Amino acid sequence: MTSPTTLVHRDAEALAHAVAARLLTRLADVQSEGRIPRLVLTGGRVAAVVYRAVAESPAASAIDWSRVEVWWGDERFLPAGDPDRNETQNRDALLSKVAVDPARVHPMPADTGQGAEAAASAYAEELAAAMGPDDVDGVPTFDVLMLGVGPDGHMASLFPGHEGLRVADRAAIAVHDSPKPPPTRISLTFPALNRSHEVWFVVSGADKAKAVGLAVGGADRTEIPSAGPKGLDRTLWLLDEAAAAEIPAR
Ligand SMILES: O=C(O)[C@H](O)[C@@H](O)[C@H](O)[C@H](O)COP(=O)(O)O
Fold it and tell me: EC number(s) in its UniProt entry (predicted)?
């Protein structure tokens, strides 16, 4: 478990470009170690700008995209191709623009009428099938896990006070009655979210300042879920000035 490091950028645009550059560097570094980077994507507006910047960067040509593994931290449980799915948005911004190997891209299941519980179990099985001998808690160890944060302090689809915050025996769960639409979602759980070398929170805007201040200050994760996930090597809070405004002085 690592204590959080905060990095503050002038505005959302500067933040997104800095995160894009950091992501390209991290992917290239892992590939140069001879490993296939395991990347967990997030939804949200800032992330969309980050992923677009990644796709458009000249440095993207340094990555062998066919050797990048892609997972998701959460998903809105909607039919395939729905514009509100994180997968759809992430494909538009990045995955359709680089030569990923479809076999290494692992979207959370779409709503085909199977039910969110069955979909979450299927994703947990897919994660378990990718585990190596040293991996624990039902997931392959990720390299970079990216998360957005809501004004209420939620991340992935773990919302304040929800029962999903207490789940410790599964890597992925169905979430019902989400306070933010759509009501039904799939999310990784805390044990799974804690299995990444690096966790990057990417947050912009004044409406997030309170939640960011509380999370970085070490709030209880059942009240401010974004206080929970910690990287095995590093936990980074990548912020713009507005989002960083209420970080407690050290
Ligand atoms: O699942 C969702 O409804 C959203 O994707 C959400 O979890 C998002 O990641 C954060 O609210 C940050 O989003 P913004 O970057 O758009 O502020």
Answer: 3.1.1.31
